[in-house]
Amino acid sequence: MASFELSDLALKAVCPNNALKLDDQGMPSVMVWVPNMRLCDVLNTEDTSCLPAFRVNGSEIDGFWFGKYQTHHYNGRAYSLPGEDPSASATLDTFVSYNNAKVQDGMNWHEATNAEWAAIALYCHKYGLEPYGNNNYGKDTRETLYKAIPTYISSSDESAGYHTDRVATGTGPITWSHDGTLEGIWDMNGNVWEWTTGLRLVYGELQIIKDNNASDPSCDLSATSAEWMAIDASTGDLITPNGSGTTSGSVKLDYVSNKWTYSTSISNTTGSYGCTFANVTCDTTIGDDAKLLLQSLAMLPDLTLTGDDIDTTYGNDYFYANNAEAERCQFRGGRWDGGASAGVFSSYLDHARSATYTSIGGRSALIED
């Protein structure tokens, strides 16, 4: 038996839903299987349709593979491997291209999409499994003894001394796994923000690429792509945007009474604000079908979903946006100093796709034909 097959067998013996997946160079990534989920599985609805993450180019899929770890870049390719310093300081398009470089027949590697991230976040919330992570300089704000292996040390203030920023992938405790088991996905709370594709703001208008089509390596993810669609506020249908963020009747973000509010119009366009995700709301112009779509993309809380293990505060995760600028692309999860604001529902829509910071990384995903 080849050494790769033995390694994969050893991984599956401990983590049955994990696998080593090879790229075009024969190099492995550790991936976690995320099975198909329905809206009614994770939201308070009777709708049995699958979540957007599980529909690609009009066809429903059984599931997708999600990187167990934040990616590290080698030779122009992105890898999900343990014990690595997560790569950062690269643009969204760079993260996309480093995943697309791995594509081969039947192996559709891609930068993780918002739809995929949302499916995992909604699962965590429904079952009370929101993970901890590196949101407090090498540890979680709720843990004092557990720490991970530092990989990037910095000091933002000489008087504060040096502190841990990034930590090695997967080296935190099991509480940093998305489902609280060894089989889970690590570091979705803090460490570095993660670029996601398929969702953006254009002057405050929310635009998405249909379903999980952004996972298709042939999908045009560029700023000028015709794949970008606005959302009809009354029906939840996708409509062609007018390019200026002022599409009639589309879902937009307005900042009203210190919280982000979905509406068909924008009264406050003074720039960048934040509020807790649990406080994101809608005004009367947003219909139920549009609300359900927003919830399925983890862009609107479902406060009607209750249960013994459900945290209705969504961990106080934060929702940042900027509705005064042209294209603002998304990253999720928070970073090393995010505190309670970091987490699986934390979303940041305040930077252009050209942004490069030591606190922004990414994650690979894979859909097999």
Can you describe what's shown?
The protein is α+β, with helices and mostly antiparallel strands. 13% of the residues lie in helices and 26% in strands. It has five helices and 23 strands.
Q: What secondary-structure arrangement, pairings included, does this model have?
A:
Elements (H helix, E strand, L loop, with lengths): L2 H12 L3 E5 L5 E8 L3 H4 L12 E2 L2 E2 L2 E5 L4 E3 L2 E3 L12 H9 L6 E5 L2 H13 L26 E2 L8 E2 L28 E10 L2 E5 L18 E4 L6 E2 L12 E5 L2 E5 L8 E5 L4 E2 L5 H9 L21 E5 L5 E5 L14 E5 L8 E2 L2 E5 L1
Parallel strand pairs: 11-22, 16-18, 19-21
Antiparallel strand pairs: 1-2, 2-5, 3-4, 5-23, 6-7, 8-23, 9-10, 11-12, 11-20, 12-13, 13-14, 15-16, 17-19, 20-21
Concise synopsis of the structure shown:
Helices cover 13% and strands 26% of the residues. It has helices spanning 3-14, 39-42, 92-100, 114-126, 288-296; strands at residues 18-22, 28-35, 55-56, 59-60, 63-67, 72-74, 77-79, 107-111, 153-154, 163-164, 193-202, 205-209, 228-231, 238-239, 252-256, 259-263, 272-276, 281-282, 318-322, 328-332, 347-351, 360-361, 364-368. Strands 11, 12, 13, 14, 17, 19, 20, 21 and 22 form a 9-stranded mixed β-sheet that branches.
Order of helices and strands: HEEHEEEEEHEHEEEEEEEEEEHEEEEE
Query: Which structural class fits the helix and strand makeup?
Result: alpha+beta
Rg estimate, integer Å: 19 Å
Q: Helix proportion of residues, in percent? A: 10-25%
How many helices? 5
Strand content: 25-35%
Question: What shape does the CA trace take?
Answer: globular
Number of strands: 23
Measured between the Cα atoms of the first and last residue, the distance is 25 Å
| Low-pLDDT sequence parts | none
What's the rounded overall pLDDT mean? 95
The biggest sheet amounts to:
9 strands, mixed
